[in-house]
UniProtKB/TrEMBL annotation:
This is Molybdopterin-guanine dinucleotide biosynthesis protein A. CDD domains: MobA. GO terms for molecular function: GTP binding; metal ion binding; nucleotidyltransferase activity. It comes from the Bacteria. Keywords: Cytoplasm, GTP-binding, Magnesium, Metal-binding, Molybdenum cofactor biosynthesis, Nucleotide-binding, Transferase. One of its GO terms (biological process) is Mo-molybdopterin cofactor biosynthetic process. It comes from Kribbella shirazensis.
Amino acid sequence: MEFDAVVLAGGGSTRFGGVDKAMLVLDGVSLLDRVLTATAGAASTVVVGPVRTTYREVNWTVEDPPSGGPVAGLAAGLQHGVAPVVVVLSCDLPWITEADVATLVEGLDERDGYGLRDTDGREQQLAAAYRRTALAAAIEQVGDPRDKSVRRTLAGLDLDWTEPTRAGDDVDTWSDLDD
């Protein structure tokens, strides 16, 4: 099934002391490039955040105004691409692979979205495949998307989740980078 990818990479990385988390390198590859490798099969890929050097060409956008949070980033990212399925990933998922992305897309069935759980069992809304129409409607319903909660914005969607997996583990602190 054809899908577009929206990669959120505009956060402030405050828990990293302002270091650009997207450009942190793990085993010789930046976190952003790891996610872009996992989404290589997308019909189109847009990264929401400042333009950086990446291993492959992608489209770039930022929310308006910048620093509006992940829901505003999703709204900006949805302006790109036309595929009926959108894989949404934060840039801090270093263990996600192309096979994991395929699992998300294939797992949609008739649902609005299908996402990863991290190894602790937490549902990762920013590591999921969504039906474009359902995601756009949820964002439109909140009005101004700046500083809105992702969980509350997507609460009305019919979502299902994988079993806990390392692919859903995001990097929020330095210790999260330990294998």
